[in-house]
Structure formats: structure tokens, C-alpha cells
Amino acid sequence: MTLTRRGLRLCAGLLVTGAIGLTGCGADPAKRAAVAPASGSPTPARVFKPGAAGIGDPYFPTYGNGGYDVGRYALKVRYDPAKDRLTGTTTVQATATMDLSSFNLDLAGLTVRSVTVDGAPAGHARKGDELVITPATGLTSGNGFIAEISYDGEPRALKNEVLGEGGFLHTDDGAIALGQPESASTWFPVNDHPSDKATYDVEITVPDGLTAVSNGVPRGKTSTGGWTTWKWAEGAPMASYLSTVVIGKFRLKTADHHGRPVFSAVTTDLPEGAADRSIARTVEVADYLESVFGPYPFDAYGGVVVSDTRIRYALETQSRPVYSAGFFRRGENTQVVAHELAHQWFGNSVALERWQDIWLNEGLATYAEWLWAEHTGGSTAQRAFDLGYARSSGQVWRTPPAGPGSPTCSASRSTSAAG
Question: What is the CATH number of the domain that holds 189?
């Protein structure tokens, strides 16, 4: 993640650390026991228990859920900006990691209309931003299952004291779903922790004339009855906070690079200029970073530039980073592009197991900025390091790199670097 100047001031004491630190309805969810077989060797009776309502992250223990591992999400979402209303169906393909009587998904604000598990109606209840699902029969450890959840409502953002509102944000001409460490749960039910990565297939239906951009490979669009459905597929496992959807009016640029699609979108709120030129150099930057870090890890390239003033940062949403327009007000800026693209290797492909390790994402991405600057004739990486160290005025030693603390994580919900 990269902050604009305004966002940078809000957590200035944390930034150099990241840069220098390179080095209700349905069955009772109570326990249920299965009867042991009547013949053959006796086997212990299975005891089915509820999955944990939090994954136990040291910094954010209530984030995510326990008892299962998601392999794939299939999202079908319809959004009407005029009414700020979202209707969706999410299919979750997962494997139980314990004998489950019930399990949780994270879902903020929206109303659940129906739930099935393996095609059978399942009980469901809400506890705050937790959706508790009780299948008709227990889920056996090691076995796969499919949950389908239908829901609707007016999406609400989640508050972040430093970055402001995050998650699904209604904009003048559409919406933006973006944020760290929480965002996904504001528009679909999810195991919202980076340790449970999954693949994604996304269909977003919006009024004709609007574009709906998400992660991964574009799979085309279809129009009927005044609505257009945009289809996307991210075939590489992705952490939930890296998922995004951006809806609005954009200048679109598409191409092919090394057999991979390039899809970029710049808001029409900006005149054509520095933002377009900067995003157009995405593949150039990616090719250089390949020479340093190895093969580009995903099946698509691109970027999205948005103008909503609530977004004052850039985020490394997988395969297609989202940038605040503020990064390009002073002209072309490929430094921020280098930072967010470096995260495709470090932060996205090589990913967090716990939020405590976010400093590794940000430190390596900042280092990549310095390398890119040197590669393009700017200051050397050594000089950039020396200046950053000198300007830290000793602040760098106040926060240990390997244990930045949850305030650091919540400041940008990452340690961040200047763009």
C-alpha cells in the first residue's frame, strides 16, 4: 500500500519503519455426535463442533474464521448506483479442517435471504458482522463442501481511523470496494483473513454505460435489458483484502503482453494526461521487476485510477492495483506503480500468514521503488536509504520491524511508504 501526501502525514512516524525495515434460523449449532458403525472394528464417534468465529491473528484475533479452508469463491453481484443497492449470490467452495456443526463467514451489514450447503437448506443467523451457518448435517473433516449465500441491501463502509472509510463505497457514478485489512466482507460473505487465500470468479452487473473492473483476467461482458455484466477470473490464490470491484466511467486501455491481457482504467473525472501515461508504463515496470524478482506471478496486468477523495492511497489489489488520482497531480509517477507492482511478488504471491508480518510487504515494495528510480536514472537505492534513515530522526528504532504492533497495522492497516 502507498499513501498520498495527506494520508502519509497521518502515520508519518510509521512510514520509515516499513522502508528501512527491509532487513438465525435452522438447526441447533450445538455439538452433534455421529453413531459409530454397527459392524467391523469400533471407531470413535465423531464430535461435531462450531468453527471458530475468528482465526486468532495476534493483531486482529476476530478477523477470519476457523474450521475450514476456502478454495474458490464465485461471486455474482448486481449493483444499482442510483439506489445504492447491491444484490448478490456467493458460492463458497471449501474443505472442512475439523468436524463442523456450524461455521462462520464474515459479512458486514447486508441482509442474508437464503443459504444452502451442498444443495440443502441451511440455518443461518447473524452476530454482528458474523454470518453463522448451520448445515443440515455435520461437515466431516477433510471433506469438501459448497455453500451458497444469497443476500442484498445497501452496502456500508467500515471505519478506519487513519484511512477513513474502507470497503464498499458509493461514489458519484458507481462504487469502489477497496481497503486493508477489511473490505471484502462489505460486499460478499468471506473468510476475511489473508491466511486463507482462494481463487475467484466474479460477475458484476451494472447499468449500461458503466464499467465494472475486478481482479484477474477479463472474461468479456454481456448486455441485456439495460444492464451489462462484466466477468473476471483470478486463477491464482488471492487474499481477500486484495479483491476489488470498481464501478464507474473510465477510459479503458487493453492490450496483450507476453501472452497476458493488460486491462487498465482511468477515471474520466481526470483529463487525459499524467495518470494515463503512468499506468501505460505498467508492463515496462513489471518487466524490469521480473529481472530482479523473477517471473511475474499472475495472468494479467493493469491498474485503475480513481478520483474519489476518500481514497487517498494506492493498494496492491491482485493483478490490478488501484491508485488515487492524487499520485499524478504533479505529473507522471512511475514510483508508485513500481511500489504496487512489487507487491504482486511480495504481499500478493508471497503473502501474509499473520498481519504482524506486513512490514515485509512494505519494506520490499519500498526497496523496489528505490531500485526502479536507480534503473531510470534517478537517485541510487543507497542514496534513498541514507536519506530515509537520516530523516527518521531515530524514529525507526522505536518500532521493532518484526513486531510493529497493531496500531502500525491499523494506521494504514499496513506500514506504508511515501508514493
Answer: 2.60.40.1730
